[in-house]
Amino acid sequence: MTSSGGPDRISQEATASGRARVNQAGRDQYHNEYVDNSTTTVWGVGAGPAPQAVAGLPAAVELVGRQERAGELLDALDPDRAGPGVVVVTGLAGVGKTALALHAAHQARARGWFGGGTLFVHLRGYDRAGCVSGSQALEALLRAMGIRDEDLPPTTGEQESLYRSALARRAQAGPVLVLADDASATGQLLPLVPAGPGHRLLATSRDTLASPDLAARLINLDQLTPRSAADLIAGALTRARPQDPRPIQEPGALQEVAGCCGGLPLALTIVAAQLTADPGLPIAGLADALADARTRLEALRYQDRDGRSLGVQAAFELSYRRLEEDPARLFRLLSLNPGPDVATDTAAALTGRPLRAARQDLAALAGAGLTGEQPVGSGRWRMHDLTRLYAAELCQRHDHGPPREQALNRLLEHYYTTTDAADDHLRALPGQPVPDRFPDAAAALAWLDAERPNLTNTVPLAATTGHLPTAVSLAECLTVYLRRRRHFHDALTTTEHAITAARELSDRHSEARALNNLGLALREVRRFEEAIDTHTQDLAICRELGDRHSEARALNNLGLALQQVRRFEEAIDTHTQAADTFRELDDRHSEGTALNNLGTALQQVRRFQEAIDTHTQDLAICRELGDRHSEAQALNNLGLALQQVRRFEEAIDTHTQAADTFRELDDRHSEGTALNNLGTALQQVRRFQEAIDTHTQDLAICRELGDRHSEGQALNNLGNALRQVRRFEEAIDTHTQAADIARELDDRHSEARALNNLGTALQEVRRFEEAIDTHTQDLAICRELGDRHSEAQALGNLGLALQEMRRFEEAIDTHTQAADTFRELDDRHSEAQALNNLGLALQQVRRFEEAIDTHTQAADTFRELDDRHSEARALNNLGTALQQVRRFEEAIDTHTQAADIARELDDRHSEGTALNNLGTALQQVRRFQEAIDTHTQDLAICRELGDRHGEAQALNNLGLALQEMRRFEEAIDTHTQAADTFRELDDRHGESTALNNLGNAQDAMRRPRGLPALWRKLTR
């Protein structure tokens, strides 16, 4: 029997399940397996019971990347579970709904859930020739259950009763599963809904078939993940030809092809078929063919030799043509939106329709599977990438000319005016009027967060479609937001388009503003020389225009860039000029900003008291203006200056206030920065556990914000705190993570800093070779970057590691290079630190006079710079060198000075160190009781601070002094305690020293007391 096509053909196919002609060509959509329960082998009209097709599922295809959805669907189908008897799998055309339904149905059958049988009917809901009606589908199912044509009742109602009765009879063997594929309307499914417990109707549809009469469980299917998409293609190729090398040889191209398909199984199946049909075609060749979005839909078509074809565009067309006029128009115009999703109010702006009508149109598109609200209830709608391409083609075809241009104008106007209102909220000081578009700054910020991809893509869209003023203005409105949220690469893109547009408009004022914003973004991504050049261009334009206010702004930001390349004196000059100009113009807010930046520059040249005064002035201005955010920034920077003059408790207080204010203002990034600085201050007063907790909070914020750069910094500082409590392995791990993140971000500067600290941690666990290697890597990066200051720091730490390996000559050379470089850079403080370390290396090769000279230079420089803490450290080391040349009285004097300075500064740790060395010097001049008293003071300080390692060293040296006073029992006890503590801390070297001293004390105790003086002299 042949058919000319059209509705009659569909009707015949739909009612054919169970007849012999389903085996004819072109009727394979049912794939029924026949079970003949009669004893008669000849059947037909009036010939007895008809055969039954109650195991009629088509074959399932291999399921990829749908395990979670398959589990959800199986739970819904379980006949023993309570729930709706109807389950509908919905989703975009080609998303794999039928494959998932068949997989779940076969799984359910294999579990023995549906002993009454499994029935399948194809409803052809989107067929151009017409779909199968509910009554036609019902007839097909009745025939599949053995009802002969002459026994079919004449009316649909009677057929439904017969259907329910047939299901009830089958229920004796178990529940029945009916799979109705490709439904487009609830009317197709309602007659098929089974009655009775356990039976299930499983349907697939592109539309959301929500109806009170249907009461269905809806399971929405989305596109595959990139990995699953690639696996689907690779699996198809290797099933066809197990030795096909292309998936293994071209993994990158495979990912590109999968990406072009947008994870849509239909598209993936098409490209797999294309590659299978042409085994010599490289995957990269297909990727090139799909790369052009303008021709991608045309490329995603496949036709076999029998003329059967698959096409993504054709599948979308079946859904689109069912839309009413308004949703269809919206669907086309949505392609104009440049971002990944669209809000309901944006859709309303595109069409010029009321908000409620736009929501209804979007819901209609979602119901047709052409968009989706993600997440549900968010008011944000997303289209599949391929659907967007299809919509763009339709828009070009149907809305070309004024309709398209008018819609684009409405879109740009909507984005600009709303962003402008949000920006006003972010810039406003307390008490200033703001637009009522948003209730507060938090709401404005939330809107910007949601719309960022759309807004940053709208700037180039405006620039390339001739809307140049909008490109300039929108980029300017985004500046504060992108900087606050640290989206600096977005800022680079938008400002570069704004500069181009401003130049095309010959708008010098806008060009200057855009250059300023570009310079700020360049500085944040560490492209400092480019930032300096950009701000210099901005400054030249402002002076050309006679715009004093913008000139001051340019000077201020130029100063920030100059600081980054250590041109501090120039930075101080530009910030000072900026502050003076703003003061002259009576712009208090900008004056405060310039003072804040001036303070940071003053800190860099160690003019700390001036920096504190400057930050205090800034703080007063912020409080006068009620600017809470700037007040917190001023507090944070003031805290850094206070740390430098060792006013740590005040610094802790200011950083805490800053963090609290940023938290109150919901500025999570700045809160993290304040916590980071608070942690470093806590370390300085040896509140290490609090510091660890604080840095951990900062780390959590960075990870919450996805700020990998700040995460690396937080890890680095956390590692420093962990090192202070001798959790060296954890410190090594955190510094390694910090270095890895910096490497991932290609931030060579931060990588070098992390390697520097990692090397220091490795030294603590005596992994000196690794430390040397790590510091050498740090040194190479610094030289590659031309960062002379960091190079000198790397040399200094490398020298310390070389000393531990007793490679003293190399250490002396590196410390000398470090000191010379710092001297060249006019960094007197760092030069003195390098000299101090050089002196220690010189002591190791017994060049004591040179060591004394270098330590003296270091102490003098620190005294000149009024760094009392470092002066005490240099004096302490000078004292050890003086001891080596037996200038013990001078050594005692220098150690005493060091201890006095530390006590004056309330630096208990440094005081303990100085007392320890003073005690050893006192022993040398046989002032043993004073030595015992001094070591006892050191021991008390170490215990007060919880410094277990220092405590062990103090015990060890105290034991030596006790031996000299022949208090051997006490000496044995203190050396034993020292050895036990070193063992507990896993310091094998310290433990060995303590055990050696313990043995000496035990030996001395066993010797006769009346030994000649000569024996004592020889054995001392």
From TrEMBL:
InterPro entries xref list: AAA_16, GPSM, P-loop_NTPase, TPR-like_helical_dom_sf, TPR_rpt
SMART domains xref list: TPR
Region annotated Disordered, chain positions: 1-31
GO CC annotation: cell cortex
MF terms in GO: G-protein alpha-subunit binding; GDP-dissociation inhibitor activity
Superkingdom of this protein's organism: Bacteria
Keyword Transferase: no
Keyword entries, A-Z: Cytoplasm, Repeat
Pfam families: AAA_16, TPR_12, TPR_7
Localization terms from the record: Cytoplasm
Residue stretches making up the Orc1-like AAA ATPase domain: 62-188
PANTHER family, per the entry: LD33695P
Protein name: Orc1-like AAA ATPase domain-containing protein
